Amino acid sequence: MAIYDYKVLDRKGNEVSMADFKGKVLLIVNTATGCGFTPQYKGLELLWQKYHDKGLEILDFPCDQFGHQAPGDDDEIHEFCQMKYNTSFDNFKKIEVNGENEIPLYTYLKSQKGFAGFTGIKGALMNQVVGKMDPDFKNNANIKWNFTKFLVDREGNVIERFESTVEPKKIDEKIEKLL
């Protein structure tokens, strides 16, 4: 299967085909509204503002699997993002990214790009936090935390996976090259 074979649900529960995004560069992110990485919404919005007219789509999937940091229903999450971070891109329905209830799109994404390692100032802290929950975390493709980002080119190829410690601005140049 290819990325365009999958279907997801928008925040109102309507089915959306990933084929609707053919020809676009995608940044697919699992997000949370109450996380230490939540301020990344600001960086995501800056990327969307800068590149949306050139073909970038940000697919925001709220996920409550990591520390129960995405409380609220889909509309409350959407309102929070708009009010706190002035987001212009929409949120999809809240999902699970790991385990028996993970959506098939994330099963596919993880099969294409495994864990890339935590980097930067918060890297050591995240290694400790995630290591306590899963001592073998470095050897599996599971999503480790909120704000894991997958970059997909215009042909639907998963180009790179960025862990939560990678700020959106660090992806800017890679997005620009794909556009």
Overview of this protein structure:
28% of the residues lie in helices and 16% in strands. It has 179 residues and is α+β, with helices and mostly antiparallel strands. The strands form two sheets. The chain has a four-stranded mixed β-sheet, covered by helices on one side. The relative contact order is 0.21.
Task: Name some characteristics of this structure.
alpha+beta, 6 strands, 5 helices, two-stranded antiparallel sheet, 179 residues, 28% helix, single chain
Please compute the radius of gyration using only Cα atoms.
15 Å
Q: What is the overall pLDDT average? A: 97
Task: Give a short account of the largest sheet.
Answer: 4 strands, mixed
What is the straight-line distance between the termini?
A: 24 Å
Order of helices and strands: EEEHEHHHEEH
DSSP E strands, number: 6
Spatial shape: globular
Beta-strand content: 15-25%
Low-confidence stretches: none
Spatial arrangement of strands, main beta sheet: 4-3-5-6
